[in-house]
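User: Here's a protein and a ligand (S-adenosylmethionine). What would the complex look like?
Assistant: Let me lay out the input and then the predicted complex.
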Amino acid sequence: MSEQWQQQAKEWVQTGDLLQATLSQPRRKDGTIAAKTVIRPVQIRGGLHYQFEYHAAGKASHDNLTEEEAAQRLVELLEQHYRQALVKTPDADVQLLFSKKGKAAILRKPPTGGSKQAAPQHNRQKQRVLEQGTAVPFLVELGIMTADGKVHDKKQDKYRQINRFLEMVTDVLPYLPEDRELTIVDFGCGKSYLTFALYHLLAVEQQRNLRIIGLDLKADVIAFCSELAEKLGYDKLTFQVGDIAQYGELEAADMVVTLHACDTATDAALAKAVGWGASVIMSVPCCQHELFRQISGDALAPILSQGLLKERFAALATDAARGTLLEAIGYKVQMLEFIDPEHTPKNLLIRAVKGNKSGVSLKKWEEYKAFRQLLSIGPSLERMLLDRLPADTPQQNAAQT
Ligand SMILES: C[S@@+](CC[C@H](N)C(=O)[O-])C[C@H]1O[C@@H](n2cnc3c(N)ncnc32)[C@H](O)[C@@H]1O
């Protein structure tokens, strides 16, 4: 056994590159050693662990070990008990073969176990706060998890969506102030899965000083959410019935979330966020009907003559216009895939972070105007942000409906 393979084995565990390892050919055949041991990374209470699955006499038993324990156990098992190991890493499938004297031969083959991205990255692991295996009270109450922390089969998509959302929030947390109470608003919160998730992440897990307000038109969902927040003891999470465009109870907010708020309700939410000087905006638009009715242009006939293409094009154009307007007034904007498009076409998330520069970016404003002219459109958001944009008399709101 060389120092080198021991070092390598520990590194696979510590870097998260170990996707799976199968140890076989026990040195003793008297049944005191499991015929095979399979090692896989698992998430337990938000942290990376390794599960050792021992196969003996037709039964499997398990041990979940921390990184450090796993690295040590892997080396021990290979030194003392097994003569062969197949270790799948993102870069290679590596076979370790041990002679009777314990000398190791190492064979590398092309990887079959998954890409580097698929390997558990430590930073990523830390961001995934809602791990299976530990019951998260709001997920249990919302019927996503069982009381012992298992996600219901039919709720896997929702669970993934919530985690994805939290990961995307985590990336922009550095842009939020830390020295005072944060105000976060969720416009069109509906049943508020993601609002509860946000509260759980920031207030419960991270103990941040904040309040979250959810607003929706529907009195029944607001009553449901208010009751649930009370039951969970989430005292800084409140819900109100109201229309986004009419909401006037705040003077400022740090973060505005609006997920699947219909058509121009998204624009009203974006305009409120800008008006409040929100540092972070997370918006998943939905039902972009406004531009569907407006877009025209002879050269666009190949798209506009097909209903499906027109609908998709109008949705993309709506969000492109929104993004460019936000950039024009000083936000840094990213368009992200919210969840796997297999589950819903409404999967685009506009993530905007307020930049340091004040004033309008004329370059972005010109880009926006050229785009608006090309499509003969007059998006609501532009009208809502009029007092922040340069005067634009000749073409202004050319296609208002
Ligand atoms: C498709 S649901 C999305 C709910 C939740 N945000 C989510 O992503 O699961 C859209 C919600 O937006 C609400 N909504 C639509 N227009 C609104 C408006 N102008 N003001 C407040 N809420 C609105 C609806 O009542 C509905 O609950």
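Summary: Residues 122-388 form a domain with the Rossmann fold fold (CATH 3.40.50.150).
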